[in-house]
Design brief:
Blueprint lengths: L1 H8 L5 E3 L20 E2 L3 H5 L6 H10 L2 H10 L4 E4 L3 E4 L4 H14 L3 E3 L4 E6 L4 E6 L4 E3 L3 E3 L14 H8 L4 E7 L3 E3 L11 E11 L2 E12 L3 E3 L1 H10 L7 E6 L6 H14 L5 H5 L5 H10 L13 H12 L1 E8 L7 E6 L17 E3 L13 H16 L1
Parallel strand pairs: 1-5, 9-18
Antiparallel strand pairs: 2-4, 3-4, 6-7, 7-8, 10-17, 11-14, 11-16, 12-13, 12-15, 13-14, 15-16
Helix pairs in contact: 1-12, 3-12, 8-11
């Protein structure tokens, strides 16, 4: 939609071909239906949140920055608000209002929209685009094609890898798609009693052969398959090209307390409640559902009286609370991922124009390109920015 808008205001006759029954189908599910459409940060700060190929995004983000994107929506009647983490939402909290705003702009500036119109192939002649063929067999002549088909995440929204097929037919190479911003499965089953537990203000570290490859602080949750939540989703974007089954996830349940401080806290609690069971006293410090696992890992029986806890057992307890380890199994399937990592190789796309370096008149924008970002509105902004640049140059 942003590519069509940009192409139209630059004097082109624009036809938007949408294979779904409505525009912006994926927008409706972003931000839990509220649509976190961008992040209110500077261009340089934005680049820090691009995981794959940040240098490629430099020109596009400066061409259409988060500030310019916010101005676009505000100027076209969509009032915005900024929430925690500089995340930008519509004041209405309705993702559908983002789609409506874009659609209304397209109609007003004369973009022709064809719904339920699936492109089967792109026609090339002598390394130039000359048209497209619809799945129904109809041919449409054109000078330029902008491929904005997304990746392979959430296929029910129409992201079924069509753009990868089109790119390959033009001679492009595809960086193998991987799930990004997705939950992680854990080995074993001792995490299962923790299902539904949300932990706020915890620290995580991920280790490969005892080397830390990722660490973060924030909110996570335990699920039926393992772990999810904001810091796990961000982690997945970093580890998705590693052998995940070789990774160890360490959770620090009390990152604000140094081990020595935590030890003193436990000693004080045990002294004040020396006749009570350790299980009951730990409920003053930790969520109840995690206590049994922690005591098992520390090799302490739940009914042990606090007065009976040895210094060695207390040290073991501190160690487990600060370093609750789980073996990782794999990331959840790419169909469940918020975004697709991988896609059309950026080395084959001109970052200043988004045009293919192999075929004249062929452009790419959005998730179909091998660019992905952390959560927080950065991926949608990437779609807007690359679409804007592609449309401007098409």
């Amino acid at each position: 939609m942003f590519a069509a808008y940009s192409a139209a205001i630059n004097g082109n006759r624009v036809l938007l071909l949408e294979k779904n029954e409505k525009l912006g189908k994926k927008i409706y599910i972003t931000g839990k239906g509220r649509c976190n459409l961008t992040n209110d940060v500077s261009e340089s700060e934005f680049i820090k949140n691009v995981v794959s190929n940040p240098k490629f995004m430099y020109g596009a983000v400066f061409a259409l920055s988060p500030e310019k994107t916010m101005d676009f929506f505000e100027n076209n009647g969509l009032h915005l608000k900024v929430e925690r983490g500089n995340r930008v939402f519509p004041v209405s909290d309705k993702a559908s209002d983002v789609t409506k705003t874009l659609q209304n702009v397209l109609i007003r500036i004369g973009v022709e929209i064809m719904l339920n119109s699936e492109v089967a192939s792109i026609i090339f002649r002598e390394s130039s685009v000359t048209g497209v063929v619809l799945s129904e067999g109809r041919t449409i002549d054109c000078d330029s094609v902008i491929v904005c088909t997304g990746g392979v995440s959430y296929p029910l929204t129409g992201s079924t890898g069509d753009g990868f097929k089109f790119a390959k037919s033009a001679g492009h190479s595809i960086v193998s798609p991987k799930p990004a911003l997705v939950g992680a499965e854990l080995q074993g089953d001792d995490f299962r009693p923790l299902q539904g537990l949300t932990l706020k203000n915890v620290g995580i570290s991920v280790f490969l052969n005892e080397k830390c490859v990722y660490d973060d602080f924030g909110e996570m949750l335990f699920t039926h398959f393992g772990v999810s939540g904001p810091i796990i989703l961000s982690c997945s974007s970093i580890i998705n090209r590693m052998n995940v089954s070789s990774l160890i996830l360490s959770v620090d349940l009390k990152p604000a307390l140094e081990s020595s401080v935590l030890d003193k806290r436990l000693l004080r609690d045990f002294t004040l409640n020396n006749a009570k069971s350790i299980y009951g006293v730990l409920r003053l410090l930790l969520p109840q559902s995690v206590i049994s696992l922690i005591l098992t890992r520390a090799k302490i029986k739940e009914k042990t009286k606090c007065a009976e806890i040895t210094r060695e057992e207390r040290c073991a307890l501190v160690s487990v609370i600060k370093n609750l380890k789980f073996k990782m199994k794999r990331l959840r399937p790419i169909a469940e991922a918020v975004v697709t990592a991988g896609g059309v190789n950026v080395k084959e796309i001109n970052p200043k124009t988004m045009e293919s370096k192999l075929v004249q008149g062929l452009y790419f924008a959005g998730e179909v390109i091998d660019v992905d970002c952390f959560t927080g509105g950065f991926n949608l902004q990437t779609a807007f920015s690359t679409g804007f640049v592609a449309g401007k140059n098409a």
